[in-house]
Amino acid sequence: MSGVEVITFGCRLNTYESEVMRAEAEKAGLNNAILVNTCAVTGEAVRQARQAIRRARRDNPHARIIVTGCAAQTEKETFAEMAEVDAVLGNEEKLKSASYRSLPDFGVSAEEKLRVNDIMSVRATAPQMVKHIDGHVRAFIQVQNGCDHRCTFCIIPYGRGNSRSVPMGAVVDQARRLVESGYCEIVLTGVDATSYGADLPGTPTLGLLAKTLLKQVPEIRRLRLSSIDGIEADRHLFDLIADETRFMPHLHLSLQHGDDLILKRMKRRHSSADARAFADQVRRLRPDISLGADMIAGFPTETDEMFENAVGLAEDCGIAHLHVFPYSPRPGTPAARMPQLDRALVKDRAARLRAVGARLYARHLDRLVGSEQTILVENNGLAHTENFTLVDAAGLKPRALVPVLITGHNGKHLTMQVKQMAAA
Question: What share of the chain is helix, strand, coil (3-state, %, to 5)?
């Protein structure tokens, strides 16, 4: 092979950073190299990264393989000890061209492979400018990194460091550059996006940032947020939900559970009542909004009753896009030291919660049949409505915004007619 290939796991922030990594590696003159940008959210994510590294080495025996990302930050020795790996970079180092210029030669020891510094010492997030997001029709912008909270199940703060925000002006500049490159939809992303601005002068909020973007870059056709914490939503965000048609009617919530005792043991900052109140409020402001959520099944000490409370919360909040994670103990987290449930029980509860999510999604699809939507066409023959529901869009041009009439669904995707066709 020649050039730089990037293999990305995990979140939208990683997707954005992969473009920065590619640009910095190429600027450094790196060639015949594979960068693996890992995720540490679950043990399965780490396993998949190791599997991909082995596959990459089999397919490219002479390429240089550099591993980075959250799993490389939190489990650096795990990757340094792999014979297939030539270097391991931390989450801060991966964004700097100097890191790629100073890589060790092939055949060095595990210790010499490591370029991973203390992420907790990082106090600022430097603005990173990209012109495109490879393979994506919507563009991601990093507005925040790190997390000041310490949920008992989560290893990510140790991979990302403490919360730090990108200055508002730099976000505006990046959005303008991406719009000029042809993107009509922008997604603001971060590790704990709703903590945005607490470390900046004047303490701006995520909602204020979004308002400013839409005012300063009027060419933005659609603006989305990635995962948020509803308990940290500010008045500017509620204003956008209520009044701004360019702000997309879809929010993905970091709920994690629906039982109050489990939420306390997770060290979450909201109660089940808070989650229900937030869902009710945003639906009053924007009746067409859809909600997604992350939920964990089988958290330590979870009883049958506690699990049913999680099911009840998903149903009460009408979570149309439910992302279910079977609890995965992460070494070094408090939850890993709590009394664990049997793995078969964890998997069973995750399957049951996913079945609830499938039923809620089918109900959501039913409600959209007969509605008029504007879809953004992806590269794979599918599209997303404004409320982030998948539509079969075979034959339509990628990146196009197309007004359609929703005619039905197949349980997974909506079906549609282009509105001009429906009128004829």
Answer: 40, 20, 40
Q: What is the pLDDT of residue 206?
A: 97
List strands edge to edge, sheet with 87-89. Answer: 4-8, 33-38, 64-69, 87-89, 114-115
pLDDT for residue 422? 39
Closest C-alpha among 201, 264, 203 to residue 232: 203
Alpha-carbon span 347 to 121, nearest angstrom: 37
pLDDT tens per residue, range 87-117 = 999 998 998 998 998 776 655 555 678 888 8
Q: Residue 194 is encoded by which pair of tokens? A: 């709703």
Q: Provide mean pLDDT across the span 40-58.
A: 93
How many whole angstroms separate alpha carbon 356 and alpha carbon 85? 41
**pLDDT bucket at 121, cuts 50 / 70 / 90:** confident
Residues 239 and 256: their CA atoms lie apart, in Å, by: 26
- What is the crossing angle of helices 235-243 and 272-285, to 10°? 40
Query: Residue 314: helix, strand or coil by DSSP?
Result: helix
End-to-end Cα, the chain, rounded Å? 51
List the one residue out of 260, 267, 195, 200 whose CA is nearest residue 233: 195
DSSP string covering 221-274, please?
Answer: -EEEE-SB-GGG--HHHHHHHHH-TTB-SEEEEEEE-S-HHHHHHHT-S--HHH
pTM given for the model: 0.87
Tens of pLDDT along 132-174? Answer: 677 789 999 999 999 999 999 999 899 999 999 999 999 999 9
Reduce the DSSP state of residue 373 to 3 states and report it.
strand
Given a contact cutoff of 8 angstroms between Cβ atoms, the answer to whether 186 and 219 are in contact is no
What's the CA gap between 241 and 249, in Å, rounded?
Answer: 7
Q: Which residues contact 346 (CB under 8 A, 6 or more apart)?
A: 297, 298, 326, 327
What are the tens digits of pLDDT across the range 28-48?
A: 999 999 999 999 988 899 999
**HSE, side-chain direction, 13 A CA sphere, residue 272:** 19
Residue written as token pair 């039982």: 259
Give the separation between CA 34 and CA 6, rounded to whole angstroms.
6
